Amino acid sequence: PDRASEAAQSAFLSALLQRRVTDRGDILARASELGADLSEGGAVVVVRAHHFAPADDDWRARVLAAAERAARSGAPGSLAAVHDEHVVVLLPTADDAALRRVADSIARELHASVHGFTFAIGHSRVAQDPVDLYRAGNEALLAANVATGTDAEGDVAMLAFEDTGAYRLLLPAMSEDPAELQRFYEETVAPLVAYDDQYETDLVQTLETFLDADGNVAGTAARLFTHRHTVRYRLERVKDLSGLDVASTDGREKLGLGLKAMRVLGIAAPRGPATEAGTAGGRVRREAKDR
Predict the structure, then answer these.
(1) Is 80:87 a contact under the CB 8 Å cutoff?
(2) What is the DSSP letter of 148?
(3) Backbone angles phi, psi at 283, to 5 degrees
(4) Residue 256 and residue 129: Cα distance in Å, rounded?
(5) 11-54 pLDDT per residue, tens
(6) 204 vs 274: CA distance, rounded Å
(7) How many of the other CB atoms lie within 10 Å of CB of 137?
(8) What is the pLDDT of residue 53?
(9) What is the DSSP secondary-structure string of 68-86?
(10) Burial call 198-211: b when 16+ CB within 10 Å, e when fewer
């Protein structure tokens, strides 16, 4: 697309996602002018890119071009633009299976043609009414944010909104009052993220693993390939920094919601190597008595 077309797509998608255009007829007319037929509905895909190697100033354009190329090959008339530092793709489709195929195609194209990056891709449910595409945009962004920082095979993590589990409950907070979600994050796990970032520790990962292991220290140690004493040490640091004790139900609940807020906000937790005392670089060999 030429620069005029890119600008028009960007303006339309921005207006749609920020709910500045809400009339069904207006949405359909503006989309039609850009070559997209939304009369039967549509869906949204959000791509977040993180470069782990030096990148030139044009990297967003390359990510946008790759995502748009893949989208249009599977859903002609797709629109794409850079919006708030991530790429948004609007697909004129009412078919769930087609939506997933196009999302997969975008992931493959990014992996094949844009190097030096990791990608988090989220896609919404199909919106049968174009008026609901604002909601679809928030769904796709939430899914991409949750996928950010997760362990994925290769350099692309992809998540459908339907697969975000309990994170879906935080969608209203993300779309209507993100400042409150940010405040809750700051009051719970933000000190852990800052500490991990400064000292290259693994407090956030240890906390997440501990909660996933239903509060079992031995199970946490086994999953992290470290010693139980190291896990206990890290959990004490969690308590010191956050003021919340994982030994209490209230503490676990607040920390768990804080971690979810972190994901919904798209904040990727720093990952080691852990260098705090006793970790031996984050991996402590377990003796037989510890297994």
Answers:
(1) yes
(2) T
(3) -135, 110
(4) 35
(5) 999 999 999 999 999 999 999 999 999 999 999 999 999 877 66
(6) 11
(7) 25
(8) 67
(9) HHHHHHHSTT-EEEEETTE
(10) eebbbbbbbbbbbb
Residue indicated by tokens 């920094």: 241
Judged by phi (left if over 0) then psi (alpha if -120 to 50, else beta), residue 165 lies in left
Q: How many CB atoms lie within 10 A of CB 72?
A: 19
Phi-psi region of 108 (alpha: psi -120 to 50; beta: other; left: phi over 0): alpha
Q: Using DSSP, state whether 241 is helix, strand or coil.
A: helix
pLDDT score, position 274: 42
**Which amino acid is residue 132, in one-letter code?**
D
Whole-number Å distance between alpha carbons of 195 and 272: 11
Residues contacting 264, CB < 8 A, separation 6+: 142, 145, 146, 167, 170, 171, 173, 174, 181
- 3-class DSSP assignment, residue 89: strand
Query: Hey, which residues does 157 pair with through a beta bridge?
Result: 120
Question: Which two tokens mark 284?
Answer: 């402590």
Contacts of 91 (CB under 8 A, 6+ apart): 42, 43, 44, 45, 71, 75, 78, 98, 99, 102
As a whole number of angstroms, the distance between CA 36 and CA 172 comes to 28
The strand pair at 117-123 and 86-91 is best described as: unpaired
Distances (CA, A) of 103 to 43, 61, 78, 212: 10, 19, 12, 28
What six digits make up the tokens of 253?
Answer: 């609940």
Tokens of 212: 């996933």
